[in-house]
């Protein structure tokens, strides 16, 4: 008989398994999971492409965007005719990311059109860059292997835009360029002290570059562009540019051709004479505008390795005792004070004693019977003392200051010296006498040239100027404000001095070599003792100079030439500086279209006859004063 069944129902193992992982149920579960994930993706996609599309896109673009500064061209400096004296040119700095360059392969095409690898890595890249730029291949390779940073190396500091395009065409991955502006000076050393230079970091140093930096400096721009993963520019990507604004151009009163001629003439004479240095200037008499201002030795404005102490403008920085060119001031003062006239007789002894010191002229001579005009024409120190001592100390000092000695010229160049004119209270017993012929005080060439400009301009002094105006980006020219002149001496005194100085560049005067054939020239020589800066004594040789103006009957231009410390040929200003003056004056007059003279030059009486008596029979020589101080028979 069968055993009775229990009340509990048994479940088949197979049925249990089917309930837990039934294929249909599992499929439905998986499907549900996939749908949930897809829903999440869809929701995220809707958010990204719909709600947050702009921000996400901007974030992605921001990671690809880079910017670079666009350098602004510095304004050009031109001469009065628009010829470039200083100009900024576009250059390229070839740079590289060495981590990308290392994978470079240089390929060459074979005759069958296929290509083969002929070089790899740094060596191949250095070879290409060197071939295109002319750089030293070993130096380029060293810059790649010893970079400034892990991803930054300067392969070629200065290359042309054309060279960069050729390098770019070579397709060296990781090589790019940085744009910059380089300052160039077409006339080189002849204008360097005047213009100054632009040093590292585009910082101006010295000269007009420094003085006019604000006007010359432009506003840099900025470029925004898109790059790929390896740093290459995406040519079809975003590119936005805020262009740079160039600086204003500076137009000078300078004549570039005349500037070069003046520099070359001074350089040649300094070498011929075995001198220390020299400077020259050409000025428009009526306006004070400088057509040339140069000095030698000079420097290369593009060479930043030079000693900064040698990169100076000696023409405005050097001070020296002017010597006989300063006699023009004493003569003007005596005329203005009514002490002399052009024919006043002055008996000049062999030597003379004043304040315990014996004075003499540059060359020994017997007693000379000279007129006032003759004393100036022959540059007699003793003759100058004989009429100059009729002026008080205060009058001498005051007239020196009226003519601008002791004050900066107003040109505004860096380093310009005011010179030194001691006040009468500091004078020694002999100072008043040496003052009369330009010793015991100091000044610059421009200050002395200003004296001649004043006389040539009918007695009106006009401050020198070198900047004519500025030109903006649109080509609009703005003329620089011209300074007003001031009267220093009368027209009558000016004409008297002009008449006298026409005798200087003649066979009767001290500088026949300063004559300009076909033109009437008025001028004055100087041969002044130089003070040795180390000892403070007159042991530094001489300063030889000649200054003057032409045409004497209608003055247009004044020229100054100064040679410091000549040791060969001669030491006299008429011999050393006179020929340079004549060359520059002739060139200036002819270049400016000034016609030669058609009438003879003015003649004055240089000497007088000591045997002539005045009407009262007193035995005095003719004139308002008759000076018989220490008469000798020579």
From TrEMBL:
<keyword id="KW-0328">Glycosyltransferase</keyword>
<keyword id="KW-0131">Cell cycle</keyword>
<dbReference type="InterPro" id="IPR036138">
    <property type="entry name" value="PBP_dimer_sf"/>
</dbReference>
<dbReference type="InterPro" id="IPR012338">
    <property type="entry name" value="Beta-lactam/transpept-like"/>
</dbReference>
<dbReference type="Pfam" id="PF03717">
    <property type="entry name" value="PBP_dimer"/>
</dbReference>
<dbReference type="GO" id="GO:0016757">
    <property type="term" value="F:glycosyltransferase activity"/>
</dbReference>
<dbReference type="GO" id="GO:0005886">
    <property type="term" value="C:plasma membrane"/>
</dbReference>
<dbReference type="GO" id="GO:0051301">
    <property type="term" value="P:cell division"/>
</dbReference>
<dbReference type="Pfam" id="PF00905">
    <property type="entry name" value="Transpeptidase"/>
</dbReference>
<feature type="region of interest" description="Disordered">
    <location>
        <begin position="609"/>
        <end position="634"/>
    </location>
</feature>
<dbReference type="InterPro" id="IPR050515">
    <property type="entry name" value="Beta-lactam/transpept"/>
</dbReference>
<keyword id="KW-0132">Cell division</keyword>
<keyword id="KW-0472">Membrane</keyword>
<dbReference type="GO" id="GO:0071555">
    <property type="term" value="P:cell wall organization"/>
</dbReference>
<feature type="domain" description="Penicillin-binding protein transpeptidase">
    <location>
        <begin position="278"/>
        <end position="585"/>
    </location>
</feature>
<dbReference type="GO" id="GO:0008658">
    <property type="term" value="F:penicillin binding"/>
</dbReference>
<protein>
    <submittedName>
        <fullName>Cell division protein FtsI</fullName>
        <ecNumber>2.4.1.129</ecNumber>
    </submittedName>
</protein>
<comment type="similarity">
    <text>Belongs to the transpeptidase family.</text>
</comment>
<feature type="domain" description="Penicillin-binding protein dimerisation">
    <location>
        <begin position="70"/>
        <end position="236"/>
    </location>
</feature>
<dbReference type="InterPro" id="IPR005311">
    <property type="entry name" value="PBP_dimer"/>
</dbReference>
<keyword id="KW-0808">Transferase</keyword>
<dbReference type="InterPro" id="IPR001460">
    <property type="entry name" value="PCN-bd_Tpept"/>
</dbReference>
């Amino acid at each position: 008989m069968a055993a009775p069944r229990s009340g509990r129902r048994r479940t088949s193992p197979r049925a249990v398994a089917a309930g837990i992982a039934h294929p249909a149920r599992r499929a439905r579960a998986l499907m549900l999971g996939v749908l949930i994930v897809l829903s999440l993706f869809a929701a995220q996609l809707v958010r990204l492409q719909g709600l947050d599309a702009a921000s996400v896109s901007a974030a992605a673009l921001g990671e690809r965007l880079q910017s670079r500064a666009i350098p602004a061209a510095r304004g050009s400096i031109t001469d009065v005719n628009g010829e470039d004296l200083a100009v900024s040119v576009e250059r390229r700095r070839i740079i590289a990311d060495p981590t990308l360059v290392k994978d470079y392969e240089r390929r060459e095409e074979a005759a069958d059109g296929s290509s083969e690898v002929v070089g790899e890595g740094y060596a191949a890249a250095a070879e290409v860059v060197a071939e295109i730029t002319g750089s030293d291949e070993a130096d380029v390779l060293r810059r790649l292997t010893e970079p400034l940073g892990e991803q930054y190396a300067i392969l070629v500091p200065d290359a042309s835009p054309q060279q960069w395009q050729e390098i770019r065409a070579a397709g060296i991955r990781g090589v790019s360029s940085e744009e910059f502006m380089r300052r160039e000076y077409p006339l080189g050393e002849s204008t360097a002290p005047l213009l100054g230079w632009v040093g590292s970091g585009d910082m101006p140093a010295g000269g007009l570059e420094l003085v006019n930096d604000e006007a010359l400096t432009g506003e840099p721009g900025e470029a925004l562009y898109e790059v790929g993963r390896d740093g290459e520019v995406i040519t079809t990507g975003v590119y936005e540019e805020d262009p740079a604004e160039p600086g204003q151009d500076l137009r000078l009163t300078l004549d570039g051709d005349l500037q070069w001629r003046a520099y070359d003439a001074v350089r040649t004479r300094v070498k011929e004479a075995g001198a220390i240095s020299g400077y020259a200037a050409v000025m428009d008499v009526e306006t004070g505008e400088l057509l040339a201002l140069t000095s030698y030795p000079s420097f290369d404005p593009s060479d930043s390795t030079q000693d900064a102490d040698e990169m100076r403008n000696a023409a405005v920085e050097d001070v020296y005792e002017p010597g006989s060119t300063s006699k023009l001031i004493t003569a003007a003062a005596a005329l203005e004070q009514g002490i002399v006239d052009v024919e006043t007789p002055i008996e000049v002894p062999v030597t003379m004693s004043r304040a315990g010191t014996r004075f003499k002229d540059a060359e020994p001579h017997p007693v000379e019977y000279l007129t006032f005009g003759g004393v100036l024409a022959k540059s007699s120190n003793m003759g100058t003392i004989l009429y100059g001592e009729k002026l008080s100390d205060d009058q001498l000092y005051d007239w020196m200051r009226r003519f601008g000695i002791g004050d900066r010229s107003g040109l505004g160049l860096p380093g310009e010296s005011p010179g030194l004119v001691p006040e009468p209270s500091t004078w020694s017993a002999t100072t008043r006498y040496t003052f009369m012929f330009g010793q015991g005080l100091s000044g610059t060439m421009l200050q002395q040239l200003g004296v001649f400009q004043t006389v040539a301009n009918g007695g009106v002094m006009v401050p020198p100027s070198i900047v004519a105006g500025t030109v903006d980006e649109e080509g609009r020219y703005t003329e620089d404000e011209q300074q007003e002149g001031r009267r220093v001496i009368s027209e009558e005194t000016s004409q008297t001095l002009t008449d006298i100085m026409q005798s200087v560049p003649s066979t009767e005067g001290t500088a026949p070599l300063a004559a300009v054939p076909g033109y009437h020239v008025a001028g004055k020589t100087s041969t002044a003792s130089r003070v040795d800066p180390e000892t403070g004594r007159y042991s530094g040789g001489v300063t030889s100079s000649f200054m003057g103006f032409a045409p004497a009957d209608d003055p247009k231009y004044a020229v100054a030439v100064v040679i410091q410390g000549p040791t060969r040929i001669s030491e006299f200003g008429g011999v050393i500086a006179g020929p340079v003056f004549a060359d520059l004056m002739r060139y200036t007059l002819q270049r400016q279209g000034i016609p030669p003279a058609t009438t003879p030059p003015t003649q004055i009486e240089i000497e007088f006859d000591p045997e002539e008596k005045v009407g009262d029979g007193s035995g005095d020589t003719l004139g308002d004063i008759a000076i018989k101080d220490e008469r000798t028979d020579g």
